[in-house]
Amino acid sequence: MIISTMNDLPGYEIEEVFGEVFGLTVRSRNVGSQIGASLKSLVGGELKGMTKMLAEGRAHASQRLVEEAEARGANAVLAFRFDTSELGTTWTEICAYGTAVRARKR
User: Fold this and answer.
1) Which of 85, 77, 94, 104 is nearest to 21 (CA)?
2) Of 26, 24, 23, whose CA–CA distance to 86 is shortest?
3) Backbone angles phi, psi at 2, to 5 degrees
4) Can you tell me the distance from the alpha carbon of 17 to that of 62, in angstroms, rounded to the nearest whole number?
5) Spatial distance between the Cα atoms of 54 and 36, rounded to a whole number of angstroms
6) pLDDT one-digit tens code per residue, 2-18
7) Which of 8, 26, 25 is closest to 17 using CA atoms?
8) I need a labelling partner for 18 at 20 to 30 A (CA). Which of 56, 67, 79, 90 fits?
9) CB neighbour class for 100 (10 Å; exposed up to 12, middle 13-18, buried from 19)
10) Residues 6+ apart with CB under 8 A from 75
11) In the chain, what are the helix, strand and coil shares in percent, each to the nearest 5?
């Protein structure tokens, strides 16, 4: 699966557009990491537990996007993006999205 943040794919011809695809995950922070993050925010610095959680969430969202694109018959995703939002005080939604296409090398 070719994934590109660009709107086109140099060296390829787009044969078919399947439309928008996305992968979604919602992550919940545990109480321990929440307390640790609150304490760390007092002195500053990276919140490593939160960074790890978000990186894993992005990987899962990307994998789900690829699975949806493949199910539609695509071999590439263009205009790939991530979006995140907070749901309540402890949940984070991570969405990977783009346009599924079938591309052929010129």
Assistant:
1) 77
2) 26
3) -90, 130
4) 19
5) 16
6) 999 999 999 999 999 99
7) 8
8) 56
9) buried
10) 1, 2, 101, 102, 103
11) 35, 45, 20
> Tokens in use for 46?
């990276």
Residues 6 or more apart in contact with residue 34 via CB below 8 angstroms: 90
**Amino acid (one-letter) located at 94:** I
Which residue type occupies 9?
L
Closest-CA residue to 37 (of 94, 92, 84, 81): 92
Is pTM beyond 0.85? Reply is no
pLDDT of residue 34: 56
Which run of H or of E encompasses 35?
helix 31-43
Copy the structure tokens of residue 21: 């695809």
